[in-house]
Amino acid sequence: MKKWIAAILIIGFFAGQGTFASPLNYSVKELYANPTENSRLIYKIPVEVTLLDVSENANWHKVKISYNVGPFRYEYVGWVQIPIGKTINLASF
Predict the structure, then answer these.
(1) DSSP, res 13
(2) Phi, psi dihedral angles at 38 (to 5 degrees)
(3) Read out DSSP for 40-53?
(4) Cys staple from 67: which of 21, 41, 42, 47, with CB 3.0 to 4.6 Å?
(5) CB 54 within 8 A of CB 24
């Protein structure tokens, strides 16, 4: 489940949110076939995933995940490791 959520965050982050802005609070709800909003919608994410913060080295991301099961709402806030910072550092060489 954690790997699935991390994959959704990576794809959603690059597909719909390209750049950082202030305040850092992005909601990831849709997966696209290509990194443009005009491309084909592949999947609507059934849980709310919100990017809240990014660590200094860009490898850790603070996220809020929430979803409903019947009348109950569950929310979790924590850190997920997505090695974007390592990828960016390797690409700059």
Answers:
(1) H
(2) -85, -5
(3) -EEEEEEEEEEEEE
(4) 47
(5) yes
